[in-house]
């Protein structure tokens, strides 16, 4: 007997098999893979996690570009509201900027008419029609469309927002519901032009904080053709939260060469957000602002850059509320002091293999804090630099020497790290007491063994 007379299928097994085969045939397109070819027109992109690509847009300033597919630079140095330092973005977004995304499907039968666009699961039609060439779909979406869809009353992108944007292809000719989508997480931060954002100076010791927090303290230290952003301080969740899902990426420094006749305060006051700038990508490992001239004085201020590229929360200037002193912000690069940077002129660097090794950084911190802060220590450092090149060069080429020197330096490294963490005199006191206690215990042990006739 036929199970389904109208199908010609005579039994359940045959029906199940035909259903499975038919399902696979008719649903092949649902397994298509969408590949990202390129994405342009965002302030920043993060594709480190392929499953959740991220797009960031930072709106700080009113600049635009003659090419609407390119960001603009709002760090022009224009004084706004009497301030020369205000939030800006070297890759600033603006409402008419076009986000251009190119994708490709593994299903070669799709056409431009199959393109699907969604914002937060709602299908929409972009104002710029998509195109398709050689199997690659090019879609352009103006940022005001995303701002409007992801934020209430946000036509001009004046409010921060976040959401999801997806694009892909239909799986069938009569449906726009599909799994063939590439979904982006979208984050936008907006700051009113000229809004004055300044951080409150914080203690340099507050360094163990949640990743993504901002910086709120530094002091300069001179090097050879460079200045170190020394004693960088962070505070948990500070400066204030940027916007949902957006973190700070690191500090940037605006700096200016001191002109003849200027004092430090005048030089600092003349720094604008169009001054020379350098971002520190990994400030805990490399805190150098380099490319400077020796024996020329420089002053600098710090600001915090977030994932959207917006630079905000500047150093409070000397004389203002929560400000710092000019000596914290100005220094004169010097070749003598900077010899520590040269691997061949520093024994610890040669022994540990890199000037950025944490062990070398610990010695550098001890030098900065305790040796170069007084005349005796400075003389010792200069004497050390004078005689170290020969030994450092020999050590760097000899693995046995490296091992021996590292072993010899570990007690000094231990002392240096304790001194930086707890203070020189506290460390000396603790180590003296520990040494006296150890010696006392040894003496008692020695005497007991002597009385017992062991010795």
Provide tags for this entry.
single chain; 455 residues; alpha+beta; Immunoglobulin-like; 3 domains; six-stranded antiparallel beta sheet; 9 helices; 19 strands; 25% strand; disordered N terminus
Short description:
This protein folds into 3 domains: 31-188, no CATH class; 215-335, Immunoglobulin-like, CATH 2.60.40.10; 338-422, no CATH class.
Task: Explain what you see.
The protein is α+β, with helices and mostly antiparallel strands and 455 residues long. The protein has three domains: 31-188, no CATH class; 215-335, Immunoglobulin-like (Sandwich); 338-422, no CATH class. It is 28% helix and 25% strand. The chain is built from nine helices and 19 strands. A six-stranded mixed sheet has the order 2-3-11-10-6-7. Strands 4, 14, 15, 17, 18 and 19 form a six-stranded antiparallel sheet that branches. Strands 1-5-9-8 form a four-stranded antiparallel sheet. Helix 6 packs across helix 8 (399-422) and helix 8 (399-422) crosses helix 9.
